[in-house]
C-alpha cells in the first residue's frame, strides 16, 4: 500500500490539505523498526518536498503546497535536524479557570456516564475541582485531571453500591467535599526531588521502617500499578513527608511499616 502521506492526499482529493502530526516527540522515539524522523525530514524540508518519493509507488509527489502542523509535549526528544525544519510556536497550558470549565462541562459528565451513574449521583463544587487541579495534578492539559476525577467517581460508585447492598441507599450523599477528596486520594502531591521527610520525634527503628517501606514501593512501583512503565521512577519529582502527630512525644518501633508504605503508595 502507499504510505500514509500519499493515502492522506488521495483521501483529501486536493493538493493543499492540512496534515497534523500529533505528538511527534513520541513518534521519533518509538520502538518500531525504521527511522520515522529521517522520513519526516524529506516531508518537512521545503527544498525537498516538491519531489517527495513514496517507496511503494516510486513516483514523486509535490508536497510543497501542503501545510504541515506537528504537536509535541516536549522539544527535548525531537532530533535537532527535524526541529530545524519547523517553526516552533509555544502554547501556554490551560489556566485553572479553564480547567474548571472543562471539568464541569466535559470531564465530570463523561466519567459519570462511563461509570454507570446518573448525573445527580455526584456533585463536585468549584472549590473541590480546583483542589484536584491544583493539589493532585501538575500539567498543562487535563489528562491527569480526568484520571483523578475518575478515581473520585469510582470511590462514589463503591460507596453507592455498598449502601444499596445494605438497603441504605437513601443515606447516600453525592456531594464531594475537599475533605472527601483527601480521604479518597490521600495527601496532596508536593513538588520536590524524590526525597522522604520524617518528622514527629521518630526513633531510629521507626525511621528505618519508613525508609524500607519507601524503597520497597519504588522497587515494586510498576507491579503495583503506581507507574506506567517499568523504567519510570516513582515520585522522582515529588517529595513525601510523613509526620506522626504529638511531635513532643518520642516514638519508635518496627510496627508501622505496612501503614507507612500504604500511605506513601497512594495514587
TrEMBL record:
Region (Disordered): 239-267
Domain named ATPase AAA-type core: residues: 4-90
Start and end residues of each Lon protease AAA+ ATPase lid domain: 114-166
GO biological process: protein catabolic process; proteolysis
GO function terms (MF aspect): ATP binding; ATP hydrolysis activity; ATP-dependent peptidase activity; serine-type endopeptidase activity
UniProt KW Nucleus keyword: no
Domain of life: Eukaryota
Keyword list, A-Z: ATP-binding, Hydrolase, Nucleotide-binding, Peroxisome, Protease, Serine protease
SUPFAM superfamilies in the record: P-loop containing nucleoside triphosphate hydrolases, Ribosomal protein S5 domain 2-like
Pfam families xrefs: AAA, Lon_C, Lon_lid
Chain segments annotated as coiled-coil in the UniProt record: none
Residue spans of biased composition, Basic and acidic residues class: 257-267
Domain (Lon proteolytic) ranges: 186-257
Record's protein name: ATPase AAA-type core domain-containing protein
Organism: Rhizopus delemar (strain RA 99-880 / ATCC MYA-4621 / FGSC 9543 / NRRL 43880)
Amino acid at each position: 500500500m502507499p504510505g500514509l502521506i500519499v493515502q492522506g492526499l488521495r483521501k483529501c482529493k486536493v493538493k493543499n490539505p492540512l496534515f497534523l502530526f500529533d505528538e511527534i516527540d513520541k513518534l521519533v522515539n518509538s520502538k518500531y523498526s525504521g527511522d520515522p524522523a529521517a522520513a519526516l525530514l524529506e516531508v518537512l524540508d521545503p527544498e525537498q518536498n516538491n519531489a517527495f518519493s513514496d517507496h511503494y509507488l516510486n513516483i514523486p509527489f509535490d508536497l510543497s503546497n501542503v501545510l504541515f502542523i506537528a504537536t509535541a509535549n516536549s522539544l527535548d526528544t525531537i532530533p535537532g535536524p527535524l526541529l530545524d525544519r519547523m517553526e516552533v510556536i509555544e502554547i501556554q497550558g490551560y489556566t485553572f479557570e479553564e480547567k474548571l470549565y472543562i471539568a464541569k462541562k466535559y470531564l465530570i459528565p463523561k466519567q459519570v456516564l462511563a461509570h454507570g451513574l446518573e448525573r445527580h449521583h455526584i456533585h463536585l463544587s468549584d472549590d473541590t475541582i480546583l483542589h484536584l487541579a491544583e493539589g493532585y495534578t501538575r500539567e498543562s492539559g487535563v489528562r491527569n485531571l480526568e484520571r483523578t476525577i475518575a478515581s473520585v467517581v469510582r470511590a462514589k460508585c463503591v460507596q453507592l453500591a455498598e449502601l444499596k447492598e445494605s438497603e441504605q441507599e437513601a443515606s447516600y450523599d453525592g456531594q464531594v467535599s475537599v475533605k472527601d477528596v483527601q480521604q479518597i486520594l490521600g495527601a496532596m502531591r508536593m513538588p520536590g526531588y524524590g526525597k522522604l521527610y520524617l518528622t514527629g520525634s521518630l526513633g531510629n527503628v521507626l525511621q528505618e521502617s519508613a525508609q524500607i517501606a519507601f524503597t520497597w514501593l519504588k522497587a515494586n512501583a510498576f507491579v503495583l500499578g503506581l507507574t506506567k512503565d517499568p523504567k519510570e521512577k516513582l515520585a522522582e519529582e515529588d517529595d513525601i513527608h510523613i509526620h506522626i502527630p504529638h511531635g513532643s512525644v518520642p516514638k519508635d518501633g518496627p510496627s508501622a511499616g505496612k501503614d507507612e508504605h500504604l500511605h506513601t503508595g497512594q495514587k
